[in-house]
Amino acid sequence: MITVALFDLDGVLTETAVLHRKAWKKAFDAFLAERAGGADAPGFVEFTEQDYLDHVDGRPREDGVRAFLASRGITDVDAKTVTAIGEKKNDMFLESLAEDGGQAYPGSVRYLEAARDAGLRIAVVTSSKNGGPVLEAADLSKFVEVRVDGIDIAERGLNGKPAPDSYLLGAELMGVPPAQAAVFEDAISGVQAGAAGEFGYVVGVDRVGGNQAEAMRAAGADVVVNDLDELLPA
């Protein structure tokens, strides 16, 4: 029996995944342009939305940097450069968050209200180190009993998604085995984490379309929806 819901944050509960993606694009394009000798240089190939989905989405910050650079065959960067790219991205994200705010998806709020009213206990598990500020900006903290975020992942030395470590910690802190918890994810890496952790149910949330739903099912999602309120009774 499912008694606990473990929600990813950006892209599942809040619209901030768009802010993350834009910030990553600015940070990576700046790095790639400098490396190529300019944005007009023949060797410059911009960072795309598919790059974000394939290599960055859902992963801890520096894991995402390394995964994307490796996908471009860039293996000669040191740890300082990886950290600098991630920090530049985070500065841009925080600027956007301050300007635009962290809006919650209305359908997600409806689902959270229904889940709470039904007695389902709620936790958030996010790779972002900005989990607290985003929850506050979106006025969602009132729903959340436990939060596991990128700070916890770093401090505890956990493996990031697609490893199940962060979700397993969320279940542990909620006092339930994985089989009694459902995972809600918009990232392929997060869906893979839910499947790897043998959670009771894995819900994929497809906000991008295209082949994403099919990829989520292949990664282990039990069901894929476009919005969480699709899970509510008609």
TrEMBL record:
Keyword annotations: Carbohydrate metabolism, Isomerase, Magnesium, Metal-binding, Phosphoprotein
Enzyme Commission (EC) number: 5.4.2.6
Domain of life: Bacteria
Pfam family name, one: Hydrolase
Obligatory cofactor(s): Mg(2+)
Broad class of enzyme this protein falls into: isomerase
Ranges that cross the membrane: none
Reaction(s) this enzyme catalyzes, per UniProt: beta-D-glucose 1-phosphate = beta-D-glucose 6-phosphate
Molecular functions per Gene Ontology: beta-phosphoglucomutase activity; metal ion binding
UniProt family annotation: Belongs to the HAD-like hydrolase superfamily. CbbY/CbbZ/Gph/YieH family.
Name of the protein in question: Beta-phosphoglucomutase
Originating species: Gordonia paraffinivorans
Taxonomy of the source species: Bacteria, Bacillati, Actinomycetota, Actinomycetes, Mycobacteriales
